């Protein structure tokens, strides 16, 4: 194994361990810490795959904002007199849930050998469609190819992403208690 393969296996192992720790944690605080570590592990995986924009988003949103919001919710849900969270009914994990999660994981892992190598020149990302996007971007008079793809070719998808960000902003304001009713 080359060192980059060892690093990838270690990162993926870390992600799996933190995911299991998140699912198996007994306290809410332990769950939040494990979830934040999981998000940071995923961010490191994205850095390994040379996707720094996705890595920064995962680190900021997954580990940063989401963890902060969860902590705010925990703080608001804590009883001021006792300083404790309300007791939740104890639930056990169902074996069927583990079986379904295991089957999905195995199914996804079976597709990994079909993926092209990272940065391979013969991967679909470097095919004829790339040349079309670059040429069409110039024909449309757009200077930035990434902007052209986001606006022209993925406009509806980008609109959906904007709607999700808006809904998240509204949820943050609601959690912080700063929503206004008109």
Structure summary:
With about 180 residues, this protein is mainly α. The protein has helices at about 5-25, 30-50, 50-75, 95-110, 130-140, 145-155, 155-175. It has 7 helices and no strands.
Q: What is the overall number of helices?
A: 7
Low-pLDDT runs:
none
Percent of residues in beta strands: under 5%
Distance between the termini: 62 Å
Q: Biggest sheet, open or closed, and with what strands and sense?
A: none
Helix coverage percent: over 70%
Instruction: Work out the count of structural domains.
Output: 2
Key terms:
CPA3_Na-H_Antiporter_A; mainly alpha; single chain; 182 residues; transmembrane; Cation:proton antiporter
Break the fold down into its secondary structure elements and pairings:
Layout: H1 3-24, H2 28-48, H3 52-77, H4 95-111, H5 128-139, H6 145-153, H7 155-176
Helix pairs in contact: 1-2, 2-3, 6-7
Care to describe what's here?
This protein is an all-alpha fold and 182 residues long. The chain has two domains: 1-85; 121-182, no CATH class. Helix content is 71%, strand content 0%. The protein contains seven helices and no strands. The protein is globular and about 65 Å long. 7% of the residues are buried. The model has no long low-confidence stretch (mean pLDDT 82). This is Cation:proton antiporter. InterPro entries: CPA3_Na-H_Antiporter_A, MrpA_C/MbhD, MrpA_C/MbhE. It comes from Salinigranum rubrum.
């Amino acid at each position: 194994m080359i060192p980059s393969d060892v690093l990838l296996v270690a990162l993926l192992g870390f992600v799996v361990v933190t995911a299991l720790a998140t699912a198996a944690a007994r306290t809410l605080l332990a769950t939040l810490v494990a979830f934040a570590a999981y998000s940071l592990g995923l961010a490191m995986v994205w850095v390994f795959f040379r996707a720094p924009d996705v890595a920064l988003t995962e680190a900021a949103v997954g580990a940063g904002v989401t963890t902060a919001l969860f902590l705010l919710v925990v703080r608001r849900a804590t009883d001021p007199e006792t300083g404790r969270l309300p007791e939740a009914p104890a639930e056990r994990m169902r074996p069927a849930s583990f079986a379904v999660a295991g089957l999905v994981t195995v199914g996804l892992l079976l597709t990994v050998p079909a993926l092209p190598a990272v940065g391979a020149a013969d991967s679909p990302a470097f095919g004829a469609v790339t040349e079309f996007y670059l040429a069409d971007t110039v024909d449309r008079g757009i200077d930035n190819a990434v902007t052209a793809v986001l606006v022209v070719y993925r406009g509806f998808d980008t609109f959906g992403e904007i709607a999700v960000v808006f809904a998240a902003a509204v949820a943050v304001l609601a959690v912080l208690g700063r929503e206004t009713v008109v």
